[in-house]
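@channel sequence for tomorrow's demo:
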Amino acid sequence: MRHVAFVAAFLVTSLLGAASAEAMSCQNRLVRQGDASARVIQLCGDPAQIVQRNETRSRTVVGRAPDGTIIQHIVTVTVVVEVWTYDFGPQRFMRQLAFENGVLLRIDTLGYGTVGYSPR
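structure tokens (generated this afternoon):
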């Protein structure tokens, strides 16, 4: 039974394509979720690719007035989303980092890198 569960988990992970990680090593230092984009640039250098977009997000906020009346407000914010791709060469996996408003939220592991990489 354990074997079947392991095989199923492996297949699901393989089909998803990118595995998520909590940290990435650059210059023998770790870059982690929650780090600022400036720190990532300082430790890892410029990424091979940056894709940037703005996302508008809305949420309904419910409150109560002093007289007991329920009040609803729609709060809308614009979030800057950047996806950086680091290519560490053919011997290492590429990494894709997702930032929101300059804060690292997610690190995904991609396939092997390309030949054209020169280390920092």
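heads up for whoever presents: The chain has one domain: 18-112.
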